Structure formats: structure tokens, C-alpha cells
């Protein structure tokens, strides 16, 4: 049984667990059937971290559903290669896929990328945030933020904040609900206990604390955005995909990478993951949340 915890708040409702949210609505077989046949040629998705792992898998799945996809990542060569793949997966001529290069460690880069997005498009139905790294020690960016927190929390909040105007506009004009999904680890880690005295983990950095803080801060951020005036028609989702075979451990020490390789047969592939609740959470119609 796949683990997929989704915290979602919509129209100022409290968080819900995905299994409870959808259990009374649709069976797993019905979700699979919907995922297999859905076509949304007039929708647009942005996938941050879409050049590998879960983000790439979600970009592929969106393209199969004829959603126009913009990938954001560091590698231009890899991004352009994936865009070609997305074009081959879409059956509709209305889709338009693209790539924007952005090193999301830096907030100024995110602001530049979002400015480019807003200059090119007026609508955004789905924003997926899947960028991330594994780290055992603190490494600061030139802006003075720990790299892991920069990707897992600060950068995600920056993307949401900068793209809120077009998310709101799309929901108001289109009549449906825009959706934001942060892919991390809700329900997996405990709250970071030093958040009031050491929010950026300058004095209390450890692998465990950085993991706890990233998860805890994402929960708080999604809840805060959902209660912000003007966001009543945007669903904010914090999703835990479980153990998925990606290259997230590429930045770990060699001994940890060996451990990841040993455990990798137990992990699901991004493609297998997307057969279940994650994509349903994004493409579900508004009546599925009632």
C-alpha cells in the first residue's frame, strides 16, 4: 500500500488527510481510471524540480493529460531534452511545453524566473514544487540561507508568493480551483522545536532538525497561504510520496549513497507513484472537495 499523505486546505477549511478526503468519494480503481483517460488541453502546469525524479514523472503525467507544462530546473540541456519528450507524450496540438533555467538555491533567481513566467502567461492551474536535496551538514548559499532550507522551504514559499497573482486570476476567470502542491514529507517528521529561537537552524543544525524543520515549515506555510485573503479558490497541498527511487541522495556522503542503493529495490518508481493519489489530488474537479 502506497503512503501518500496530503494536507489540503481549501476555502478556509482545516487540513485533511488524503485517504479520508477521497475515501468516501472514489475508489482506487476509479482514480486509476480517471488518471488514465483525463485530458486537459486548456490547462497549464509549472513543475519546479521537473528535470529529474518525481518532478519529471509529474511533468510526464501532465503532458499525457495534454496539460501544457513549463519545467523549471538548473540544467538547460536536461530541461530541453525533457521538453522534447513531453511533446511526444501529448496528443493535443494545443499543448505548449517549455523550460526555464533557474538555480532555486537563490531567492533572487526565483524572482527572476517568476518575472519571466508572468511576462509570458496570464494563467496557471497547477504549481508543483518538488525541488530538494539530502544533506548531513549546513551549507550556506551566497544569500546566507542553508541550501536544504532554501530548496525545501524558502524557495517554495518564494515561488508561491511570486505566482499567486496568476493562480488567483486563473481560478477567478476559469471558475475552477487552482492548485499548489509541495512534495515533501507531511506526517513523517516531528515539529522542529527551536523554530521560535532559531528559525534558520543557525545554532541547532543537524540532519534530523533540517528534515523536521522543512516538513514543519511546509505545513505551516500551506496552512497560512490557504487562510490568506484572496486565496479562497486555491488548494494548497503538502504531499508525501513515500519512498521513491530518485536521485535525491546524490549529495549524500558515499556511505549513505551505498545504503540508498541497497534499499532502492524497495522503493517505488515515480511512474508507479503517479498511478495513485498524487495526480488525482491535482486534477480532481472542484466537486471532489465538497
The parts where pLDDT drops under 50 for at least 5 residues are 1-24, 254-260, 286-290
Strand order of the largest sheet: 1-7-6-5-2-3-4
Examine the secondary-structure arrangement and name the CATH architecture.
Answer: 3-Layer(aba) Sandwich
CATH topology: Rossmann fold
CATH class identity: Alpha Beta
Tally of strands: 7
Query: CATH-wise, what's the superfamily?
Result: NAD(P)-binding Rossmann-like Domain
Per DSSP, what share of the residues sits in E-state strands of 2 or more residues?
5-15%
Instruction: Determine the mean pLDDT.
Output: 80
Order of helices and strands: EHHEHEHEHEHEHEHHH
Supply the number of structural domains: 1
Helicity level: 40-55%
Shape: globular
Biggest β-sheet: count, sense, barrel?
Answer: 7 strands, mixed
Tell me the Rg in angstroms.
Answer: 18 Å
Helix count, DSSP H or I runs of 4 or more residues: 10
Helical/strand content category: alpha/beta
The N- to C-terminal Cα distance equals 26 Å
Give short descriptive properties of this protein:
13% strand; disordered N terminus; Rossmann fold; single chain; 290 residues; globular; alpha/beta
Amino acid at each position: 500500500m502506497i503512503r501518500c499523505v496530503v494536507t489540503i486546505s481549501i476555502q478556509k477549511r482545516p487540513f485533511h488527510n488524503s485517504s479520508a478526503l477521497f475515501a468516501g468519494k472514489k475508489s482506487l480503481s476509479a482514480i486509476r481510471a480517471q488518471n488514465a483517460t483525463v485530458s486537459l488541453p486548456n490547462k497549464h502546469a509549472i513543475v519546479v524540480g521537473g528535470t529529474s525524479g518525481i518532478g519529471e514523472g509529474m511533468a510526464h503525467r501532465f503532458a499525457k493529460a495534454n496539460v501544457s507544462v513549463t519545467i523549471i530546473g538548473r540544467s538547460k540541456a536536461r530541461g530541453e531534452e525533457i521538453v522534447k519528450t513531453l511533446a511526444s507524450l501529448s496528443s493535443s496540438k494545443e499543448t505548449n511545453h517549455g523550460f526555464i533555467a533557474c538555480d532555486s538555491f537563490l531567492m533572487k533567481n526565483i524572482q527572476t524566473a517568476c518575472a519571466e513566467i508572468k511576462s509570458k502567461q496570464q494563467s496557471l492551474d497547477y504549481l508543483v514544487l518538488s525541488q530538494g536535496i539530502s544533506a548531513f551538514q549546513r551549507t550556506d548559499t551566497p544569500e546566507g540561507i542553508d541550501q536544504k532550507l532554501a530548496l525545501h522551504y524558502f524557495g517554495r514559499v518564494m515561488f508561491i508568493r511570486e505566482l499567486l497573482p496568476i493562480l488567483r486570476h486563473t481560478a477567478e476567470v476559469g471558475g475552477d480551483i487552482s492548485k499548489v502542491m509541495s512534495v515533501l514529507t507531511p506526517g513523517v517528521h516531528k515539529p522542529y522545536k527551536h523554530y521560535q529561537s532559531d528559525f534558520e537552524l543557525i545554532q541547532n543544525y543537524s540532519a534530523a532538525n533540517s528534515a523536521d524543520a522543512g516538513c514543519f515549515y511546509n505545513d505551516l506555510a500551506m496552512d497560512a497561504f490557504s487562510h490568506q485573503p484572496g486565496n479562497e479558490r486555491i488548494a494548497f497541498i503538502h504531499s508525501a510520496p513515500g519512498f521513491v527511487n530518485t536521485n535525491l541522495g546524490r549529495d549524500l556522503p558515499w556511505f549513505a549513497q551505498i545504503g540508498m542503493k541497497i534499499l532502492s529495490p524497495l522503493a517505488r518508481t515515480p511512474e508507479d507513484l503517479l498511478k495513485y493519489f498524487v495526480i488525482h489530488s491535482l486534477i480532481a474537479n472542484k466537486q471532489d472537495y465538497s
